[in-house]
Amino acid sequence: MRVLFAGTPEVALPVLHSLLDSPEHEVVGVLTRADARKGRGRTLHPSPVAAAARAAGLDVRTPRTLRDEETQDWARGLDADVAVVVAYGRLVPAELLDVPRHGWLNLHFSLLPRWRGAAPVQRAVIAGDDVTGACVFELEEGLDTGPVLARMEEQIRPEDTSGDLLDRLARAGGPLVLDVLSALHAGTAAAEPQADEGVTLAPMLATADGEVVWTAPTAVIDRLVRGVTPAPGARTVYDEARFRLGPVTPVDGVTDLAPGEIRASKHEVLVGTGDGAVRLGQVAPAGKSWMPADAWARGAHPDPGARLGLDTSDAAATTTGEEA
């Protein structure tokens, strides 16, 4: 089949590589986001998909919108059988949805209709879901509302960060998409409408969403930190300066620390929560690189009773991260 591929970040690469490696399919064009400025020098860098597609000699386009006439004429001229979308980051206008013969297929990293939106994996981890997965569905004008052609489930492990989970789902997505394309070619694909019940939304996370509220229960803090790792990242405050956090470990039997209170020993750093304590892993104080928490404590020498966070006594403790 002739395939138009649309994607931007690294998680889209497994599907792109699966399509390129498949003798049954030909990638005839690639849509991705424009080069972005990164680093201290603010130099332009291509998206991971753009770099891989250009290396493969593909026709790559980076329009700011799919509504412009030039881009739409290009898409029509590709004579594509199907378009495959993985984390593209641009809306597909209604006038393009019927351009490929089999429409636009989106690989979405959740078990739809749960977690429709831009951050399904992060929201699933934060909410404490036991199972998530991936779906291939037909794009339509609604937000992730189209009928589902295939789905697979993936267990969320107790130590999973959103980055860990997304990596596994992305790698599983390649075979899932190829199975759907084979079914479409054979005329055996069956799209199943999404249920009206069980809909939850997964809006994009902002930097502020990674702020740890130390009065929250240990389980909520653990899930939040893992859910925002690697992006937008977990953070708190120490000595009135930003203090970034890697994944933490819940600790049983520690009940004498106030929320945010630090207890540092030679080999570990514990911090009190609303109902117990967590052990810090990697930390990054303001202006410094990541380091083990015990190494930070040996240099910082936090005073007895020192705390992480803002005014934890006034902070809300009920945030679960679940969106309705």
From TrEMBL:
Residues 297-324 are annotated as: Disordered. Belongs to the Fmt family. (6S)-5,6,7,8-tetrahydrofolate binds at S110, L111, L112, P113. This is Methionyl-tRNA formyltransferase. Gene3D superfamilies: 3.40.50.12230. The keyword Transferase applies. It comes from the Bacteria.
